[in-house]
Amino acid sequence: MSNKLKLHTFVFLGAFLLFTMEPMVARMILPLYGGAFHVWSTTLTFFQGILFFGYVYCHIFAKRLGGLHLALVASPLIWLPLVNQIGITPPGDGSPVWPLIFQLILHVALPFGILATTSVMAQQWFTRSDTRRRSPYILYASSNAGSLLALLVYIALCEPLLGLKAQSRLWYVGYIIYAILAWRCWRMTASTPKNQSTALPASNIDVKTLISWLLLSALPSAFMLAASNAITLELGSIPLVWVLPLTIYLLTYVLSFSQRQWIPSTLLNAFWPAALIFGLCSHYSLSLGSAWELLAHLIALFALAMVGHGELHRLRPSRDQLTVFYLAIALGGWLGSASVSFFAPILFNSLAEYPIIIGLFATTILIIKKEDLVCVLRSHLIYSCTGIVLAISVPFLVGINRIIREEHNIINQYRNYYGIYKITDRPLNPQESQDFERLFLDKPENVPLQLSKAPILRTLMHGSTIHGFQIMHPFTQKYTTSYYHSNGPLKGIFSAIPERSHNAAIIGLGVGTCAAYFNEKDSLTFYELDPAIVDIAKKHYTYLGDCEADLKIVTGDARVNLEKAPDNFYDTIMVDAFSSDAIPTHLLTLEAFSLYEKKLAPKGTVVFHISNRHYEIGSVLKSTSAEKWQAFGYMTRNLKPFQDFALFCSLRRKGDNTSDLQAADWRSMEGYPYESAPWTDDYINTLSPLYYKYQH
After folding, report:
1. Which of 172, 192, 302, 568 could potentially form a cystine with 129 if both were Cys, beta carbons 3.0 to 4.6 Å apart?
2. C-alpha to C-alpha distance for 675 and 406, rounded to whole angstroms
3. Mean per-residue pLDDT, 301-326
4. Do residues 484 and 492 touch, judged by C-beta distance below 8 A?
């Protein structure tokens, strides 16, 4: 193997290990944090911080350490087996962010920090030993190619085919090969006579250039996380959703820093405003997670990052300032992601950073290119005019009616590390008013309605997904609405034991609608991950206050807290937890089902609410429950006003009587048309249910 090929292989493998580590570690931690919204953004920000410190290490010590660096490279071979014996522990009370950061520091900071030095160390070795004074940036291209391939391999092969234990073992083998390659590359460069002509005079870097580097690396990084958050609020927190924006972000680095210009700068300069406006249209759209909306976020991210990284490449320094340049890029990327992960949830109660970043980016580009902006417009007049026309036309092509939000009265809006919640009030429209009169007042037609208080429809939304609503009026406070209406299966499930008290556990609170089904002799426990939802349900809705049952609310991850409940206690366990429009995957695994079976009373029932727009969950439930359970599905029909379509799945232990379910129109899932591999805590494949849903 030639010296050049050794260095390219070393850099490629280091980047590959680095970027398979990110989604793998986040996937390991996700269940312990309840599948929460913040896990990926916090994890990615942590990794970018470690990347920065890795570059600081390279800047200060790369030219001094020499062979001592190899001892540091070898240290994870001892550290990882030791620290993995400790295990990752769930967070306690309070903010989950700092426990998560502590876990990441303890378990992965050392190997990730070492891998983060790969590209710069290799380029230092290359510069020291290369007598032809070739550009070391060619190694940077290999690094980005390894990063990009790692993410694609992870979502296409690792996640669908391998469990976490197998992924970890393969990664550890890869690290052993990496350590051997590091030794070989160092030996190769150490045995080569040093290039005496590479000691170039240090060029001065002015403050303006340094600020430009920071902004051009920070804004794409921040927008990558803002776009990730926007998509996560629709599709849920899973590796597939995390990796797509990160892949696009890295792809723009690969394209921008390659020796060939893949996309002409004239096209980018002309059309990036239209792409960003398309993203803004998606951000402010009412279409509730349509495919075009998700695609718009990715297109906007590609355009913004491509232009930003293109300018970063244009402003790159000579190779004597290589480590300073990478240090500025790493610092900017870290600051950008930290602003979205740590500060935006404190400063904003919505995804306000999305349009703010776009505005800052446009201002930055205009300032950097102000001297030749007019010249560019004149020299490429057709492209420029086309881009301006397209930017103006995009909102009209999308549809103004989709972008301008309805005039709902937002009575409160919350944002924390678990998500973004909005409570809205609106008066009933004419048709709904007629339905209200007919259903609740038994009023003859053509008789004027005289009420001391007009009914209000109060809705809770997480992202763009409705998580329940209530008709705020004394006549209707106990009326079950939305997916939980009495025209569906829940009334029969919760009143299946009329002769004694009913002990029920519901995972996921929402607005507390299901509490209306229970009376004074029943016991009801809600398990809710986010304390903010408890405050919302108590403050803005009346279902909990009107509930006559012995009511308890337990905050924190349901699986952790359900372990503390008595065995064989609950007659019904209902899983109704959603992260926006997706059920947290760790509640759908064999280990979770074993926990439900342990806590379920004899002849008890487990019910899953599986209504969503993006995942075909029935196939997962059928396959995962096949060994020990009988599975039945229910689709709501004959809907009345204020009732929404819903899908449910119920499980009974094999051998238990299911005649009551069949009599209530539950259908056996034995002939269910879709198949998925059973999910476990070690293995989860979200590609197949996503594919089945969109195929259907």
Report:
1. 192
2. 40
3. 82
4. no
Q: Residue type at 53?
A: F
Confidence tier at 371 by pLDDT (50, 70, 90):
low
Give the pairing type, strands 647-653 and 629-635.
Answer: antiparallel
Rounded Cα–Cα distance for residues 626 and 616 (Å): 17
Contact 576, 537 (CB under 8 A): no
Q: Which residue, chain included where needed, has tokens 């009346």?
A: 542
- Kindly compute the dihedral angle of the four CA atoms of residues 340, 309, 58, 66, in this order, to the nearest 10 degrees: 150
Rounded-to-integer distance, Cα 67 and Cα 575, Å: 55
Q: Kindly give the pairing relationship between strand 647-653 and strand 523-528.
A: unpaired
User: Which two structure tokens, joined as six digits, stand for 431?
Assistant: 């048709």
Across 91-95, 285-289, 571-575, the highest mean pLDDT is recorded for 571-575
Please tell me the number of Cα atoms within 13 Å of 579 on its side-chain side.
31
Residue 352, helix vs strand vs coil: coil
Sign of CA dihedral 69, 74, 78, 84: positive
Strand partners, 506: 526, 574
Q: What does residue 167 show for φ and ψ, rounded to 5 degrees?
A: -60, -45
Give the DSSP per-residue string, 579-616. BTTB--GGGSSHHHHHHHHHHEEEEEEEEEE---SS--
Q: Is 432 left (phi over 0), alpha (psi -120 to 50) or beta?
A: alpha
Stretch (H or E) spanning 468: strand 465-472
Helix axes 164-191 and 76-83, enclosed angle (nearest 10): 160
Q: What is the pLDDT of residue 199?
A: 42
Rounded to 5°, angle at Cα 644 from 453 and 614:
135
> Is 477 in contact with 497 (CB distance < 8 Å)?
no
What is d(CA 142, CA 16) in angstroms, rounded to the nearest whole number? Answer: 10
Residue 373, pLDDT > 80, answer no
> Can you give the pTM of this predicted structure?
0.84
Q: Cα–Cα distance between 280 and 632 in angstroms, integer?
A: 42
Q: Which two tokens stand for residue 118?
A: 């790969």
Instruction: Please report where in the chains the tokens 């006549």 appear, as a residue.
Output: 475
| CA 130 to each of CA 3, 121, 190, 194: distance values in angstroms, whole numbers, following the listed order | 10, 14, 12, 8
Q: At how many degrees (to 10) do helices 97-116 and 118-129 cross?
A: 20
Would you state the structure tokens that stand for residue 9, as one six-digit string? 């292989």
- Cα 301 vs. chain centroid, distance in angstroms? 15
Listing from the earlier edge strand, what are the strands of the sheet with 503-507?
550-555, 523-528, 503-507, 570-575, 600-609, 647-653, 629-635, 667-668
List pLDDT tens digits, range 49-68. 998 888 888 777 766 666 67
Alpha helix stretches (DSSP H) within 192-264: 207-235, 239-257
Tell me the two tokens of residue 297. Answer: 């976020």
* The pLDDT value given to residue 376: 64
Q: Name residue 555's beta-bridge partners.
A: 528
Residue pair 436/472 in contact (Cβ under 8 Å)? The answer is: no
